[in-house]
Amino acid sequence: MTHPLTFIPPPLKRIQQGLWLQRHWFDPVFSGLENVDKTKPALYVGNHTLYGTLDAPLMLLGLYQHKDIFLRSLGDHIHFKVPLWRNLLWDNGCVAGTPQNCQQLMEAKEHILVFPGGGREVMKNKGEEYQLVWKERTGFARMAMAHGYDIIPFAAVGADDAFDIRYDANDFYQSKLGQLVKKTGIKDKYLRGGDAFVPLATGLGLLPRPEKFYFAFGERITTAHVQADSANKDIQWQVREQVESAIYGLMQDLFVRREQEQTQWPLWRKKLTKRDE
After folding, report:
1. DSSP letter assigned to residue 250
2. Whole-model pTM?
3. How far apart are CA 7 and CA 30, in angstroms?
């Protein structure tokens, strides 16, 4: 396990090389970069997409490349139970999303990434594309308020269209095997009550469709003025709702931009995606 403050970002060139194929397949574009300032650390809060591995690395690379900001990610605990995968996350600055780790990163004035939906938002069910699944969580708001940290809302569009979910948790738990899993307690003990069920999805077979990825960063949401009220649940919810609203607004802007630009996409991209109508 890596201590949050001993991490040294890898060279930009190494990340660019490692994501070469991904960058060309999805051709990411960014807007709102003027809202990002390396000298003003912030907590970046946004939507997690299906599987979570297609667009998040490209967003991190984009900030590193355009703004010289290397985001320190707070990851779902389930990631760090997987050998090799957890080492890859540690090597790229990700740590378990605990209050202690978040506090240390904030005290060190790091730029921090968090997806409040965590693993549940990655393990989507049919019809949950671009939906924030945050349940009753307000921890990110509480931590930002306690440290007077600015929040930068962001949105990611494209990855939830790269696959079609064919079989999800609802399908499984309606099956005979799923009913047995519920009765034996396996669902609650090992699958977080069903939240950790990995949906089965297809794109171009098992490959994702080459949807163009769009990222947008919104205006800063300050919390310094409510720092003394960080334990107040009502104010935490107010901050959470403000961030949610900003994220959904950014998504809508990106949907409009995508619709306007899709006629300019290369023919091969239009033919291999849902954007060819």
Report:
1. H
2. 0.92
3. 26
